[in-house]
Write the structure tokens for this entry.
Amino acid sequence: MGGLALLLAATSWLLWPDPTPVSTIGSDSLPTVPPPASVTMSETPSASPSPTTPSDSPNSSARPTPTPKPSATPERTKSPTRAAPPAKGFPTQESAGLPAGWKPKRTVTGDFWVRHRGAVVEDLRITNGIIYVTAPGVTLRRIEAIASSVVNDYNDQCSKGLLIEDSDFVRSSAPTTEEAWPAVSAGGYTVRNVVIDGVPEGLRASNKERCGGVGIHDSFIRVTSPDVCSDWHGDGLQGYGGGQVKVRRSVMILEVKNECHGTAPFFNPADQGNDSVDIDGLVVAGGGYSFRNGMPGPVRGLFVVDQSWVYGPVDVDCSVASDWSAAVVTMDSAGQPVPIRDLPCE
């Protein structure tokens, strides 16, 4: 799919199910966080999983909906270094994620547990469930997550070193709601060559003390207004008490339907306990402001799709940006940004 048609592609539906059978992989002598004593192999956990703390739930009042800014002279303006798209190009919905012709080797409905240090889970299709990762150094490869999420901080104990690659996170045919969990949380993970498309919440960066930061590489993320909507605060990525957010050659889109507006494709504000950013190659589109960042670090190769925002292209604390190169762009038929003017940080 090319051009601005990326922003209008049809999506699929997300709904959390009633308790469903649990699948599991691996166990070893390392201390992990088991399910509560009442949980058996045929039950879902009775304890409430905590991909985020209660105060940073998707509908928390701490997550402000974008509001117009009053006209004022900016405290600081950074003149942009000219931003050039990467020679390799940015990923699209069609080019990223699962390989063409992929078929699962295992299919699961309900939750799936990974408890083995260094476990590699491949070619799995999971529907209406959660992949709980409770061991360090896990790899999830070629996963199709339908109305499903990945959580690596069960019971607030984080399993670092999680890698998710060559995978798709999509909605099911059921209506989506604004209570949906992020596709991946909470921290200490990297997504590489991943598609997240049509779900109300993308990535979460949180629990930095236990988890650390997150990496987003060569990935296509499009969050979409939920079908059942009253006060949606969706984001492509949200930092809430998160570590460094590192982005390389990725796309984040916030797609609005039925006047149900979310927050931003990229939302990493200064007042939510976040750490820093390191961005080199990011296309954003949609939202009140398409790129919202209050944390220190370099921002290079930022491309904001022209007129996709409500209030403005960026909402940034320029005083903490150690480097800045950005442009307003259109999208060509191959889904690649075409700069039309430089975008200063102001």
